[in-house]
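Dear Dr. K.,

Following up on our conversation at the group meeting, I've run the structure prediction for Trigger factor from Nitrincola tapanii. I'm pasting the input sequence below exactly as I used it, so you can double-check it against your construct before we proceed with anything downstream. Let me know if the numbering doesn't match what you have in your notebook.
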Amino acid sequence: MQVSVETTSGLGRQITVTVPAARIDQDVNKQLQQQARTRRMDGFRPGKVPVSVVKRMYGKAIRQDVLGQVVQETFYQAVTQEKLAPAGFPNIEFRKDNEGEDLEYVASFEVYPEITLADYSQVEITKQAADIQEADVDQMIDTLRKQQASWSEVDRAAADGDRVRIDFEGFIDGEAFDGGRAEGMDLVLGSNSMIPGFEAGLIGAAAGAEVEVNVTFPEDYHAENLKGKPAQFKVTVKTVSAQELPELNEAFFARFGIEETTVEGFRAEVRKNMARELKQALKSKTKEQVFSKLIEVNAIEVPAALIDNEIDAMRRQAVQQFGGPDSKIDPQSLPKEMFADQAKRRVTIGLLVQELIKANDIQPNDDQVRATVEEMAETYENPQEVIDWYMGNQEILNQIKALVLEDQVVDHLLAAAKVTEAQVSYEDAIKPAPRAAAE
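The predicted structure tokens came back this morning:
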């Protein structure tokens, strides 16, 4: 077997492989003889079919199967011999594949980048820290009560916090525009679910009122044809409803799976859940910042094949998340551009993290794996059953080990960087980082 390698781009490689005809013929003959012994054909006794007959009838198909097997084997041998690490599957082009001649094919593919990790000691990281105040617990309980609130119609003007049922139609320069019309829509005033000014324009309107609301679409509005445009909405208020918050009692606590009978016990459970959420939010923000800096100081070329694979995985995830397991949506119908930037970032982080793990011989810490499982089990009714299930399921346990390994990489980078701490409020702490929010 002869092999030659050519660099076609930064990560692009092209290898030309020549396989002697004798090897191809030998493998083809083996297959023909095997078929002659096992194939049943009219007019011949079992095992007595002449090889020449099998070749005449099935020779081309057998040769194609052999070529496929030979290419698979010799490609692996070639990249191993040349110390190449292909990223993704190769594109195979046959140059010569005639019977009796040496097989020659060209394989085009990308390789993994060679990574030399940059010094992380000059990187500056700001870790947020926050405490949960009693006012934060009050606000969380108020939010929970609003989620379980009921509504009753009232015969008065709408106030902030009320829910109105409305019909409306929007106009720009006197012309109605697409998507600017709705009937029987429920809107909570003060929820900021409409463009700025719309909800405020309905405060003071009673059922049966016809109101004209003048607003201006934000410059960053998602519809290109509406960005920054002044608009008039003609609104008919159908009903006004006031919110009725549930009492803090045992029945209310049970709605959240909390077996408490006192307000103090309920507050303690809420605070515990808020602490868990806060810890995860702060951890995610730190990790996001650490990885962003890692990418910033390590400019590497990323194989397009890996990005495409990640885009396909994200497409499938999106369909499963938003369409459900029985969705008829074809993942490939989702625009590639929707996922391209995020996919490239994920692949880049993955390559750098793997290099850090290899360079520093980082192994998953068993105690940390156990602690992670126990923390995940805390939210279940019977934590020990969940712990036993996780620890006994090797596939799931490997996923947790991968998460722990990633956390250990973050800790390794934090130990090398210049880290400062910034105290923030609970509300600011649980807000996702700008990049995470955008994704």
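Two things stood out to me. The radius of gyration is 32 Å. The mean pLDDT is 91.

Best regards,
J.T.
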